[in-house]
Amino acid sequence: MLINLMKFIRGYLKIQVYGFSPERFINLCSNRNILIWGLENQNHQYEMFLSVRDFKKLKPILKKTNTKLKITERHGLPFFLYKYRKRKMFFGGIILFSIILYILSLFIWDIDVSGNYSRTDNVILDFLSQNDVYHGMLKKQISCEQIEQMIRSEYDDIIWASAQIKGTRLLIRVQENTDVGMITENATPSDIIATKDCIITSIITRKGTPMVTQGSVVKKGDVLVSGRVDVYNDNGEIADYQYYAADADIYAKTLEEYNEEFDIKYTSKNYTENEKLRFYLRILNKKINIRSGKISYNEYDMITNESQLKIGNNFYLPFILGKVQIKEYVSTTSTYTKDEAIARGNKMLKEFCEILIEKGVQIVENNVKIHIGKKSCKIDGFLVVIEKIGKRVDTEILSIPEERTNTDELE
Amino acid sequence: MKKRVAASQKNNRLMENVADTLKLPKDLLLGAAILTVTGQCEAYVENYSGIIEYTDKKIKLQTKTCRIEINGDRLMVVYYTNDEMKIIGQIDEIKYQH
């Protein structure tokens, strides 16, 4: 392959040798290190290939062997260039192509971020573009060390960063600190209060003074666990208060109301097979319709898909190609039957319950009923659920009781 | 004449022994041609000194010790340099002449 390419660039000829002793000619050629290939003997005439440079050395051999020579074919780049020497635009194009290729290679066309787990590529790319590192910038202006430093100083959890220019790509590799950061404990004294009326089913206190027990009926806003811990002296009097951030798991039975209503009449879309496609191009907020025309449908849905053209993975061009799908439908109005309405109501309730269960709520009782009226269907009632309740609020700091200081003075 | 042939044969045998005991390549010491034939359609020849005759039915080569005649059909030399050549075509027989 490479040899063929070299032959092509240097240029080669096909010659015909005839005369007294072509064999001697060939032997002399090989003796003088002239490479011959494709030697063929047809009708007592020898045909062979040899390179242009070697061809110039043939004259003394021809004289010596008294043979004659005829060039039959010319191949290769020198002959090609000679043949098309008058096509100036062609050569101009080759030169222009090389120049454009060179100019384009001066820019960064793709920024590749890898090694990031907790931060998305876009976050890092946005940060870089704020600091004048963006797609399409000159390669010269990039200082890899500066980028590394910028990333490390901006993000605390990135412990190592490397920036590298590879061709027209800027490769950024980061290493994130995967150790979980310290959980800062809430140090300010706080109480836990009820967020709604409920009956406590279980309470486990880790810090603070529990104010309720299992079975207590609690109203909204009542303190469940106080952050204040009383310290008693020997006389059984309060000597001091210690304040903590109250911490407890409290589960309580509450009522969850549920009200929902839907019309018993509904319209449904029956899509016909008719469909039309429209395309448009948006360049810098200017919309150009590629295919337009009136839409003859009475009722239709329009589904628009926009995709931005990009080079590589992250370099977006300011061109947006849009595709609009227009689907015709015929709407029909119909009424739910009793069974259908009940099924729909049950489905809605079930969805609601599933959302609750996902939040970690236990459903104990279900008192929801479905009433079917003339115009609408009502679902209402309540659910008895056990859920985790409690909201943190700051503790009121009380002054230390006066009596103690008084008695101290008396003694 | 007979004497000379006998002497050269003796010399040859000596060189052969030398080559065997010293484990040297025979083509260097004896100036023997190397012929590598692949199937019936391809032959490499090394260590020759020239072409004597070449047509599409017959190629006759001169080597240091003997002449090699390759007979066949549609014979063609793919390349030909000072120390190696490749022949393709249908090879029917290879003859050695002293």
From TrEMBL, chain A:
<dbReference type="InterPro" id="IPR010690">
    <property type="entry name" value="YqfD"/>
</dbReference>
<keyword id="KW-0472">Membrane</keyword>
<dbReference type="Pfam" id="PF06898">
    <property type="entry name" value="YqfD"/>
</dbReference>
<protein>
    <submittedName>
        <fullName>Sporulation protein YqfD</fullName>
    </submittedName>
</protein>
<keyword id="KW-1133">Transmembrane helix</keyword>
<feature type="transmembrane region" description="Helical">
    <location>
        <begin position="89"/>
        <end position="109"/>
    </location>
</feature>
<keyword id="KW-0812">Transmembrane</keyword>
From TrEMBL, chain B:
<dbReference type="InterPro" id="IPR022476">
    <property type="entry name" value="Spore_YabP/YqfC"/>
</dbReference>
<protein>
    <submittedName>
        <fullName>Sporulation protein</fullName>
    </submittedName>
</protein>
<dbReference type="Pfam" id="PF07873">
    <property type="entry name" value="YabP"/>
</dbReference>
